[in-house]
Every structure is written in structure tokens, then in C-alpha cells.
Amino acid sequence: MTTVIDPLHTERPTDVVRRLLDTAKAEGRNALTAPEAKQLCDVYGIPVPKEGLATSAEAAVTLAEGVGFPVVMKIVSPQILHKTEARGVLVGLQNADAVRQGFEAIMENARAYDPGADLIGVQVQQMLQSGVEVIVGSITDPSFGKLVAFGLGGVLVEVLKDITFRLAPVSREEALSMLDGIQAAEMLKGVRGGKAVDHEALAEVIVNVSRLVDEVPEIVELDLNPVFARENGATAADVRVVLDFAARTPRYRPSQEQIVRQMNRIMKPEAVAVIGASAEDGKIGNSVMKNLINGGYKGEIYPIHPKADNILGYRAYKSVKDVPGDIDVAVFAIPAKFVAQALDEVGEKKIPGAVLIPSGFAETGNVEGQEEIVAIARKHDVRLMGPNIYGFYYTPKNLCATFCTPYDVKGKAALSSQSGGIGMAIIGFSRSAKMGVSAIVGLGNKSDIDEDDLLYFFEQDDNTQVVAMHCEDLKDGRAFAEAAKQVSKKKPVVVLKAGRTALGARAASSHTGALAGNDRIYEDVLRQSGVVRARSLQDLLQFARGIPVLPTPKGENVVIITGAGGSGVLLSDACVDNGLSLMAMPSDLDAAFRKFIPPFGAAGNPVDITGGEPPSTYQNTIRLGLEDDRIHALILGYWHTIITPPMVFAKLVIEVKEEMKAKGIEKPIVASLAGDVQVEEAASRLYDHGVVAYPYTTETPVAVLGAKYKWARAAGLV
Amino acid sequence: MTTVIDPLHTERPTDVVRRLLDTAKAEGRNALTAPEAKQLCDVYGIPVPKEGLATSAEAAVTLAEGVGFPVVMKIVSPQILHKTEARGVLVGLQNADAVRQGFEAIMENARAYDPGADLIGVQVQQMLQSGVEVIVGSITDPSFGKLVAFGLGGVLVEVLKDITFRLAPVSREEALSMLDGIQAAEMLKGVRGGKAVDHEALAEVIVNVSRLVDEVPEIVELDLNPVFARENGATAADVRVVLDFAARTPRYRPSQEQIVRQMNRIMKPEAVAVIGASAEDGKIGNSVMKNLINGGYKGEIYPIHPKADNILGYRAYKSVKDVPGDIDVAVFAIPAKFVAQALDEVGEKKIPGAVLIPSGFAETGNVEGQEEIVAIARKHDVRLMGPNIYGFYYTPKNLCATFCTPYDVKGKAALSSQSGGIGMAIIGFSRSAKMGVSAIVGLGNKSDIDEDDLLYFFEQDDNTQVVAMHCEDLKDGRAFAEAAKQVSKKKPVVVLKAGRTALGARAASSHTGALAGNDRIYEDVLRQSGVVRARSLQDLLQFARGIPVLPTPKGENVVIITGAGGSGVLLSDACVDNGLSLMAMPSDLDAAFRKFIPPFGAAGNPVDITGGEPPSTYQNTIRLGLEDDRIHALILGYWHTIITPPMVFAKLVIEVKEEMKAKGIEKPIVASLAGDVQVEEAASRLYDHGVVAYPYTTETPVAVLGAKYKWARAAGLV
């Protein structure tokens, strides 16, 4: 029934865990008993109330001295279920005498209550001091695996769902970040004059829980609820552990080196085969051929066709096996039912990658068909992109391996989409905004290649400076998080996660599980991995476009310089919304700005130069903003006037920017242009020169700057 | 010290209030004592613990029977401050005997504790049953006046600032909406198997507090904290009342009839004077003249100039007083220092409105100058627009009374801005998007005419269907709220409130005050007034453009029909974000949709018709969506394919829409277009035909539909 204190730890920790699990499994249980769970906590350094069983008054005193006063004493008897009714419970016993008398009293009361009961003894338990009630727990997510959770305890927190998650195991720093990661974080810092709780002790509980669930795969859910967090220390008053003994098949993952080697051949091929190439207009195999040719791809193109000798001027082959040279990637443009056989040939030819445009697999319910091709690919070590995709673009190679229209504006943004429709939106937007792109990739059913493969490729691809991904699910969230964590240290990773709606109440037997909204996990894990999250399709596209244009800021001090006071207010709001820090203007700098602006203008921050000013006022203040070391980023608010028309403004900004660049000064500059339609051309000109500028919006330029900052912070650069 | 129960109410309620205030004022206090505050509560039907003073055991029993068992008894003696130490407190007395003995025991204990003490008697108080702790309070906002507040009690709620506000007084319905208006609303509905609190009783407390503060202007802050809300009833355990006896000057407000009469002459003038008209290019008075003339204004134009006889072909006058006919509005294009004298002449000429373009008043620190012109205007009953504005447009009269460029796309959206820069953004966006506009108005310093004047004008202006306003502050938030509440019943009112950043901790002596973030008040009051709040400049502009285009939905059932599954997911996310209800698809309708889509397409909602479908599939499913009575609004997701190109899609949607319109069926339709750049033209074509369509974004079309719904709900139409 109870844990006997074992100060000598005669049993090794791993043996304890094994014994507990074996017992539970043997008894067909999927949960540990409370005493078992407490033993587990003891082994992992998770503080629980100390307790023991005494069979004599003197033993009770020894135990009490061991656990520390005050103590609680309770009768232990299989027949006595209602201990309080039997007067078998005493609380707050302060010293040895009280414990000694308490033991006798409890035994006597129990005998009187039920003369026939077996009296095993009296449980002596450390009496917990109350504190701030928190919950520490763990769940097992189908995509992310073991997660550790932290939130305040109590019913109100369940109502508010104020809980934060991290991938297990976590470091001390990550655990501490969880304490700040809940809405009610102030509660832990001491309110109404109270003292702060022991952050280190609480972090240690979180770290140890995360280590426990990481090391013991069978633990699928765990609750410490409540944990009493005190000024000094933290103790879990109640522990629940849910087990699952079913074995899991680990996902097949090549090594990172292998991924990069294969992805490089697929994304930057020297030779491409088009399986199902066609000379007939309107066929997918025809579009793919034309896009390869008209896109300007310089490598070998091998059309594969059962009958044709020549397609669009290229020698055709019956099978990839007939092609004399090496092939790096095979693009499939044939119906689903023919894919398996052709893929087998691709494998025999040792082609490392297959781009599967055809639909008709898992997305239409044909799960077996998809499993079949995955098995073939695994056998031959062929990586699969798709099926059910538009293909992909890699502009540095002039490669349009897709049936969509070619895309040729080269640049530094790599984009991917799980959905074909979103892929088309990416292409249309890119063309319309002249967004410089290195790659656009369709992932479709993600039968094999997924976001983490792309991330490892783009990490080492010098043509890519930012990765922007649309995804609906992550087949292996943990692998994605690991890849993102590594890649985002070097290059910004932006993710639009579609399907944010909570999956509804999940069948969970733990509090932690019930609190785990699907999106909250994505939110926390993506942030933990250094990912910049896009909240909308437009955000994804604008971040992809703007982030590579802006230099990385060297500090947090943002200054707004505006001709329109009204824009200044909205730009300030946008700074708050996007987590940017408006610099508190030092008085010397304030004075320096004031020299350039009218007496009724406002220095401070925003610097309001007022509306009727000539170009020189904009120019002088922007120059000052760039020159002064204490300022790290500029937000410009332009107001269309006769005295400083839009294109004049654009030119002067570009001039100052170039002048400073020549002196080695580069800072991110974004701009919001308020005015008549001429501001559209001015914004476009500014963008072309590295100033992220938009007409008719104060929020978008600041959001792009905010995204750059979010990445720079996560990467430790600012 | 204590309130004697007065069941007969010998004193009239108003007399009680007056007596309490007079006493406080006479004693130089700015707060009521706890017993005074409780008397106030008694008068206003706010439940507080009943209590009374007993000087004998029998009197104590009578009192206890009056307040109801159980009771608390406490010694009352000026000399005994530590009542518990004196053993002068008893709690939980359940019957007459216990009270009788309790009285004797307390008196005896007190005598023993301090034989020299004056024993006034024993206070007998109703013992409160605990419940859910909530706070009900009131503050006085400089703009909105008396507000009533509701939130959960306790320290956690202070940390989370989970509190909601309404203008006082509130109706029972509004009070009930406050209970649902906090994040933690679930707490009141009973959690973990607990029972719900008494919503009616709690609403009554809120209603009565709101009535109290409304009727007693001197009460500037009030806290009931905590109020114990139980399954049956609610009682305020503690009451704090803060007073301010300083008199307030009410703001000058003409009657609504007068406002409308004057605003109609100003906005739809038959004759306009331009004070400071000029023939010289580059002068503001020249731009105003040209805009009036070139804009096509058909009324009389009177240039006013000290010397000229004729300006741009119009006879000029030295003063408005020299003009023979009536003048409806005078546009000022002269420096600030000449405004006062010219305004006096405008007043003498009985011109009802002056449009003050000049800057150089309060915005540059010249507060006296502004006060001077306001006084002149008030003397002559002239309404002032500005100063420090670009002027205004009223397109149905071809009137461009501004120095900016003319605007001529007539339509149903009226816009206003407090800032000139934002005004220019409105003009540029409108022109770029071909937004149909009835009016664009600059409000600038708002020395007189403000948003509420405009609202009353636009309410009765048949050329306006939606009002969209940018504002930084509301000089009289209460008047605005009243106007908005009235107008939004007929026409949507959209507001972009700039300056959302909390003003920081305000010096407040109440909990309610400390919890009142400035923006939270705006949020709640704007919603209470039926206003649709825009979160960004783009939202303001897109809502103004889209709301008049969409018919008002007749119910909440929204259906998504999409060619791209990926768009469907993002559109669903956007529905959640914008408070739209995706209809649960009835099985017969599901079957009807399935008839048109491929077997692997998904019916349900979204209806995923899959990407490779011909125009007829879009057409059939959209027709079904419009024809079926149970569906109230459609969201379309288009995916660019060869088989259904963008313009084909646009045409088919317009065709079905027109076909249904001929049958009398009109429902709001919005569309998100994913594809190559041709989708831009398709979106534009759709918009021109009443389908709110956007390329490269899933969120904006749904946000516009959401805005239409928000208004329709507030106006009671859906």
C-alpha cells in the first residue's frame, strides 16, 4: 500500500522502473498505483511527500523524524475504507510525543470502529505546506511524441486552458521558459506582495519529468497535479501515470548526410527523365517536357514513352533502364496504376529520386497503392516526392519540373506547399510581386519526402536564404522540429500551419491530455524550434518575400520616422502587435532629431516630422536614424504631399540607404506609404532597393520586420 | 459602526443617498465608510450581508432570526480592536439557543479581557456562504463616463485582466451578456460537476450597480469585491465607494434634429464659399477651387479674396458678407491667424458650417487659438469641421471640398479619418480598388464636428450604406456610442481605433480601475454599440469596400465549396477566426452535393470538388448552394487549372449568381482564388459583380464576410 523509505537505494533506478513496469504489465494494468508512481518519482528526483508504514508507536516516531514534522497519520487496514469516519486520521502532528500518542489513539479508535478489521499499521506522511498550485505533466502526441506540459493548477486554469508544451526532454533553460510561457506567469512571480515561487525547483521538476518520459517509452501520459510550488521548493501532491506496452515501429529515416546527398541530386539534377513524356498538347507529360525545355534547363532531358522515338526534339526511351547515362531524378506523368512498375525500373536504374505528379493514391482512399510504391522505393532506396503534386521548381538550375507554368524570377526564397492549390497561389503571387525564388516544391501526400528533408537540403543550399512552408500536418513532428531547430539557427524558417481548429475533445485520461489543444502544441513546439509562424497565407507570402530583402538587425531598438502623425500611431500599434520594441529616445538623439523637424513636430518615438515637410526633412532624419549606432531598425511612415511626392520620397530613401551602405551601415528599413495611387509605384521601387514598403497598410511592413526579428532572436543574433 | 436593519424603510432612498453624500462631503471625505456603502447597497437592492447591533441576548436572537441562521457574532467596543484575541467573535451559530449563549459568552469574555472597556453590544451578522468569487464594479472614464465592470474575483483574475465593461446603466440582457463576456465564463456555468451560479441574481447586482452609479454622479469608482455568486443568489462581501464632488461642465451638444439639419447643408451644399480662394497654382485655395470646378460640382461657388474680382472664372468677393445669396458651407484655405475674423463673418452671414483646412491650432500647441474659434462658432451657431484637415468629399453632389486630388467613383461607402495621412491612404486605396464611395471626411482636431455628427448624417443619407471610420480618440465616447448604437441598427459602422496600446497603469484607487486597460473598454463598448471593429487599416478599407457589395445573410449557415482541399482547410481556419459557423451538412444535402463531385471528393463542409474538375462541377455545386434554403452564405475556393481557367470560373460564378438573382435568391458569396496571375483579373471581375473575391489570400474574403455577419448580428438581422 505504501512506499517504505529506502535511503540506501539498495535497488538501482533502472531496476526500480523495470520492476514497476513488469508488475503492471503482468497484472494487465495500464496505470501505476499511487505508491508505484511515487516510487518512480523518487527514482527520478521528483519531490513527493515522504511517507512510510509504522507498525508500532516507536516506529511511527522514527518515521516522522525521517520525513520531518509536521506529519499526517492514517490507519492502514483493508477493511477500513472510510478512515475519517473511523477516527483513523490525524493531521498536523508536531512532535514525537504527539506521534506516539497519535499512533495509540488511531489504533484504538480503529479497533473500536471495527473489532474484526486487520490493522496493518499507521501510515506516517509528510504534511505538505500549500503553495501556488501548478500542474506538470506529459502526453504522447502522434506526431511530436513525448511532450512535457506546464500550467497553473486549479479549475480556473482548466477553463482557460493556460498551459504550455515542449518536446521532451527539456533543458533547464527550456523548463524555465515554460514558467514564463503561460498567460498567468505573473502568478509565479509573487502578486499582492507575495513572494515568488522557487523557479529553479519547479524547473527541476519539469526537467525530471521530461527525462522520465523520454527514458521510459511505456509512459504515455503523466500528471503531477497539483504540484505545490513554494518560495522554497516544490512538491507533487498527486501523481498519475498511464502506460502503454504496445510496441511502436520507428519511422524510416535516412541519415542527415544521406538526405542531403539524395536531395541535392533530386533538386539540382544533371539529368532528368520524364516518365510519360508526351508530344500531345494538354497532356501533363507534355507540359512537363515544355516547362523543362522552355524554362531553360541545361542538363540532360530523357523522355520515357512506350512507343515514341523522339519527343519535342529529344530522343525518347521505352524505359529509364534503356537510357545510357546516369539519371538524377525521374518525373512521373503517368496514371497512378502504372506508377509501381515504372518505379521499380527507376529503382533498378539507381535513380535516387522520383517526383510523383499523379494523383489517385492515399488522397482518394487508395492507401494500399501508396503503401505499395513506398515499399518499392524503400527496396531500391529511391526517395519519393508526392504523389499528388504539381512537381517542383529550382530556379538556379532553370528547372521547372512541373506541369504548371514556368517561373523564372531568381531569388533567395524557397517555398513549399502541401496542397496544390496553395502551390498555385504561391506561383501567382510570386510572379505578381516579382518575388525572387530559389525553389517552389509540392509535397502532396508526403509518402516519403517531407518538410524535414527539404529543410536539410535548403540549409546547405547557398541559393536559399529563407524557407517558407505551408503544411497541413507534420507526419513526424519531432523530426521536423529537430530539423527546424538546426536550420533556423542559420536561415529563417516560416511555417503556415493550416488546420488550426482544435481537434475537439480527445479521449484522454489525464488532465494534461484534456488541456492539449492541437494548435497549442504546434504553437509551442514551433516556437521552441525557432520557427516563425505565419498566421495567414498572405503572411507566409509576404514574409518569404520580405525577410531575405531585409538585413538582420543588430539590436532591438526600433525607431519610427513619420510624416503623418496618424500613421505613427497605427505603426506603433503594429509594433506592439508584432513584439517590436520602440526605442526610448535618448535626450541627445531627441535633440538631434528636433534640429531637423518643425517646432510643433514631435520627437520622441515615433519621430513625427509633420506632413508639410520637404524631401530634406525626410532625408536628414532618416540619415540620422541610420547613422546613430543606438538605432537598429527604421520604420518609415510616408504621407503623400505636393512638396514631397511619392517618387521623390522613394528616391531620397534609396539615396540615403545607398550612401550609408557605402559607409558599411546596413539596417532593416520598412515603410508604409499613405497617399494617392502613385504610392504604389513608389513602394515597388523601394522594395526593389531593399526597403520593404507597402501602400495603404501600416500593419504589413511592421509584420515583416517583426518576422525578421522573431527569427533573429530565435537564432541568437539579436 | 453598523447598519441597523430598517425593514420599514422609513427614510426614502434618495434621502438616504443624499444624507450619505452630504455627510461625506461635510467631513471632507472622498470615500464612504463600509457601513455607509452598505446602506447605499441596501437602497439599491445590492445584496450585502444583513447585520445589526444587539444590546441583549434576546435582541441578538431577534436579530439572528431576522438575518437568518447561521450567524456570526462580534463584540462591539471602541476599546477592543483585536476582537478575536478578546474571544469576542463566534461564527456559525445555528439556532436561537446558540445565539443566546453566545451573546452572554462574548460579553463575559470581553469584560474579562478588558474590564474598563465600553461594551456597546454584539454585532449579529449573516454568515456568508462562499461561492464563486466575482467582482462587480464601476469606473468613470474621461471619454465614456460611467462604466460598469464584471470579472471573476481573486488574484489570478487580476493577473489575467479578465474583465468586461459596459456603459452604465445596463439592461438585464446586457448584464447577462457580461457574464458570457469574460474568458473564464465557463467558471460560472459549473465545472467539474459543480452547479452553475445564479446568473439572474448576478445580473441583477450588475444592473443595480449600473443604476446606482448612473443616478449618483458623485460616485466615480465602486468595487463590490468579492461578490459570492452561489447556485442561489449572490452577495457582496465587501463594498468600496469613491466619491468626487467636483462639478463637471457638460459638453455642448445640439439636438439630433439640429445636427442632421446642419450636416445636410454642410455635406450637400447648394452654395460653397472658398475663403482664401486663389488663382495661383500650388496654393491650397487654388487646389480647392480647381477640385470644386473639375470635380463637377453643380452648385454655386463663391471665391472669397481680399483683392481679386474673379478667380478661375468665378466672381470673387472680399467677404462672405458681400455674397448676395445664401451659403451653406465655407471652406477655409487661409493661414490660422486669419481664421478667427473670417469665421466671425461666416457667422454673421448665417452660414451653418465651416470647413477648416488650416493647421496651426491645438495640434501645434495653439490651444487658445482653437478655443477662440470654437467660441466664435458657438456664438453664431456655426458647426466646425477640423481644423487641420484635408476637407471632405461628397460624391453624389460631385463635391470635392478638399485640396487633395478629386475622387469620382460613386458608391455606398462613407469613410472618415482623424488623420490626414490616413485620409490620403483612403483616397489612394479607393482609387486603386475602384471602391464606390459616397463620402470621405477629414476630422482632424475635431474642435466641433466629430464621428457622432457624421453618424447621424450618414444614417439618413440614402447614398450611404456603410460607414467606416478611423479614429485615434473619441472626445465624447458616450455620445459616439449612443449614435453608433442607433445607426448600426440600420447601417454597418466599422471603426479602426488607433492607439490600442494600454496607457499604462493608471492611478486608480479601485480594483476595477486597475483592471481597466484602455483598449478593453473600447473593445467592449464598441461591441455593445453594434460597431464592427477593424483591426488594421487594410481591414477598415476592405470592410468598407466589401460590406455594401454583399447582401445581408438570412442565417448563420456558411458553406465552403472548394476546388483545392488546401484552400478548404485555410478557409475553415478563417471561419473560426472570424466567428463564422460552418453548417453541419444534412445528409440529404450531402448526397445532393455528392452527385456532382468525384467519388474521392469530400462532401461535408467544406465541399471539396477536387482540383481537376470542369466548369460544370463548380457551377452545379454553387447553384445547389444558392438554391438550398438551409444555406445562407457561400465561400468559394478556386484552384487554377487548365480545365477551368480563372476567367471561365469568374464567368460561371457570375452566371449562376445572376440566374439565382432572377429567381429572387440573393446570398453573400465570397471567393479566394489560388492560381497564376490571371486570377487577379478574375477576382476583379467577380468583385464588380458582387462577389467579394481576392487572389492569393484565404483570410481576407472570409474576414469581409465575417464583418458583414458581425454587423447583421448586432443589428438583429440574423
Automatic annotation (TrEMBL), chains A, B:
One of its GO terms (molecular function) is ligase activity. It holds the Pfam family Succ_CoA_lig. Residues 38-91 form the ATP-grasp domain. It comes from the Bacteria. SUPFAM superfamilies: Glutathione synthetase ATP-binding domain-like, NAD(P)-binding Rossmann-fold domains, Succinyl-CoA synthetase domains. Keywords: ATP-binding, Ligase, Nucleotide-binding, Tricarboxylic acid cycle. This is Acetate--CoA ligase family protein.
